[in-house]
Amino acid sequence: MSLLAAMGAKALWLLYLWLASAIVASYLSERKGYGSKLGLAFGLLLSAIGAVIWLIVPARPDSRWKLQGAFGRGGKTVAEARAERESGGESG
Q: Quick one: pLDDT band at residue 61, thresholds 50, 70, 90?
């Protein structure tokens, strides 16, 4: 009976790892400007490797990752950066 309990506990921790990696991959892809659904798919299908892949994928130029950093502290908003880029393109 204790063997089944140990297997159940291990399965629960693996489920937590799988769900956490899906959350992290979704967050990273959203911050890097690719949308959260793509990151969620990577996290659910590839588990922890999906989150590592999103650490390697380069961020888009006007993404929150580039403008505000990984955790969103300081910097410009995406709307401010786009407006600045569009107004700079008209005068040049």
A: confident
Domain shared by 84 and 54, yes or no: no
- Rounded Cα–Cα distance for residues 64 and 88 (Å): 20
Residue-wise pLDDT for 14-46, tens only, equals 999 999 999 999 999 999 999 999 999 999 999
44 and 66 both lie in a single domain = no
Domain that holds residue 20: 1-58
Q: What's residue 90's pLDDT?
A: 57
Degrees (nearest 5) of the Cα angle 32, 27, 74?
65
Q: How many domains does the chain have?
A: 2
Residues 6+ apart with CB under 8 A from 28: 39, 51, 54, 55
Task: Verify that 53 and 74 share a domain, yes or no.
Answer: no
pTM (predicted TM-score): 0.77
